[in-house]
Amino acid sequence: MKVNLTPEMIAQLDGSVMRMIGVATELTSLAIEETERLQAGKPEPIDDILLRKRELVDEYEKWIKTMARQQQILMHANPTLFEQLLQCNRELTDALSENKATLKKAMTVSKRRVETIMRAIREESTVPTAYANNGRYAANTAYASSLRPAREI
């Protein structure tokens, strides 16, 4: 099926391709920045990145879905712009792949930290107390040396 587009429609299409090049480029930059922050291992918030990334991903996905339904129209885009978009998409895919791997590593490290803290809390809560079940002092209770009751002489 042949689609005839007016010069204005082609200009509009080229404009939307340029916009998506910008979106893909910004998404790539954000993914790289997020990856760098995560790899640094600092407890630096990434909420600013996540919010902007979500906005751009929504816009990009919406455009991709629209173009998937209108593939014949996309063939009228400027070939140079279209090739730039494909290159940006490849770079975005690479950046997101590295970002995903870094996120998995960061989540694993966080999970291990939480497990270590929880284990320490559980172990500390099982230290025997100085009192027996009847509420009286239990002389045979094992204490850390700094926690032993003072002896009266």
Set out the fold topology.
Elements: H1 7-40, H2 47-69, H3 71-74, H4 79-125
Helix pairs in contact: 1-2, 1-4
Brief rundown of the structure:
By secondary structure, the protein is mainly alpha-helical. Helices cover 71% and strands 0% of the residues. The protein is built from four helices and no strands.
Report on this structure.
With 153 residues, the protein is mostly helical. Helix content is 71%, strand content 0%. The chain is built from 4 helices and no strands. The protein has helices at residues 7-40, 47-69, 71-74, 79-125. Helix 1 runs antiparallel to helix 2 (47-69). The termini are far apart.
**What is the count of DSSP helices, taking H or I runs of 4+ residues?**
4
Radius of gyration: 30 Å
Main beta sheet strand tally, sense and closure: none
Secondary-structure-based class equals mainly alpha
* Distance between the first and last residues' Cα: 104 Å
**Run of helices and strands:** HHHH
Average of the residue pLDDT scores:
84
Number of strand segments: 0
Parts with pLDDT < 50 across at least 5 consecutive residues: none
Strand content: under 5%
Shape: rod-shaped
Give helix % range.
over 70%
